[in-house]
Amino acid sequence: MLKTKKMIPLAVPHMSGMEEKYIQKAFQENWIAPLGSNVDGFEASIASYNHVSESAVVSSGTAAIHLALQLLGVGAGDTVFCSTFTFVASINPALYLGAKPVFIDSEQETWCMSPFALKTALEDARKKNQLPKAIIVVHIYGQSAKMDEIIALAKEYGVPVVEDAAESLGGTYRNAPLGTLGDFGIFSFNGNKIITTSGGGALVAKQPEKIAEARFLASQSKEDAPYYLHHQVGYNYRLSNVLAGIGIAQMDVLNDRVAKKQEIFATYEKGLADVPSVVMMPELDVAKGNRWLSTMTFCVDTVGKTPEDVMELLKARGIDSRLLWKPMHHQPLFQDALFYADGAGDVATKLYETGLCLPSSTQMTQEEQEYVIDTVKEILIK
Ligand SMILES: Cc1ncc(COP(=O)(O)O)c(C=O)c1O
């Protein structure tokens, strides 16, 4: 039995040790500003890792989504389709722009956007003559959605795709980096993500010239003139040069972090294989997610406990866990929004009602993970 007084956390930052060198550089250059050599270096690193020519680093993943939607011309009265099984940040930027969200269910093979539900929603929208201005596809918990089907539907209906890859930097679909398959892709470097700058985000785009436009919008849309000249609305969204330094050092260890997250998932999968009704989050054959969080579902009737009960019991044993995302179509904020279910029923709700995220920090020791597995088994089997 592991003797630990500390809580085993869900997912905490894991520094490489080189971050301070780049922070120091910003201080030496006195570029304590939202631009500078660290920002340039971080943008180059994000672009090269994802095999694209340009990226814009910004103050958050939410800001990156806002910029993508603005660049797609989303405005008041428009609709935006979005995965329902996500964090609210995926869709808040649509509200900032006065657009209305329509929520699309998950499907069982990926837990991500259901092509069946998307098709139904698009058919319906065409009938009403109100096709969405964008489809926001979320690669949830680091795992890829069924991108072939989703992109084919988006093309058929002429709707651009924004990939919310906030949780999935380092994951791939048919060997292409997640975030680079749609018209825009966004990443988050929030404190609990696979790499972090404490807070930050990035935007990539199919058309590289869109990135220059994003940088412009993110800098208060300040024109290149000898005086302060503005033709359009802008935002203060550029990432600080100090924080970008953390990002450069974090990018050097991203592949190690992805490998460790995948190892953690594989260990849970093996360790919990003999627990009746436990199903670990699935993955497509053509995809390799980053396994940002290891997640599972179980049969509440077989176990006789809800995910919330299990979470509380784990907490009492020093283990931090988290319920799966409560679908957006159940949030009071979106009570009037339309929702399109998968052919198998409301999959996202079922996931929420039966699932749990397990500790997935890359610093977790083997001993700690064994303790988590033994404790989960004990709680679920008894
Ligand atoms: C799916 C998803 N989308 C968007 C975001 C927003 O990112 P940020 O916190 O950097 O604004 C997050 C994380 O916080 C997320 O998990």
Automatic annotation (TrEMBL):
Which controlled-vocabulary keywords does the entry list? Answer: Aminotransferase, Pyridoxal phosphate, Transferase
Q: Which CDD domains match?
A: AHBA_syn
Q: Which Pfam families match?
A: DegT_DnrJ_EryC1 (PF01041)
The record's SUPFAM superfamilies line, in alphabetical order, gives: PLP-dependent transferases
**One GO molecular function term?**
pyridoxal phosphate binding
Signal peptide positions (record) = none
What is one Gene Ontology biological process annotated in the Swiss-Prot or TrEMBL record?
polysaccharide biosynthetic process
Q: Where is the active site?
A: K193
Q: Which InterPro entries match?
A: DegT/StrS_aminotransferase (IPR000653), PyrdxlP-dep_Trfase (IPR015424), PyrdxlP-dep_Trfase_major (IPR015421), PyrdxlP-dep_Trfase_small (IPR015422)
Where on the chain is N6-(pyridoxal phosphate)lysine found, per UniProt? K193
Q: Does the keyword Transferase apply?
A: yes
State whether keyword Transferase applies: yes
Instruction: State the family it belongs to.
Output: Belongs to the DegT/DnrJ/EryC1 family.
Q: What is this protein called?
A: Putative aminotransferase
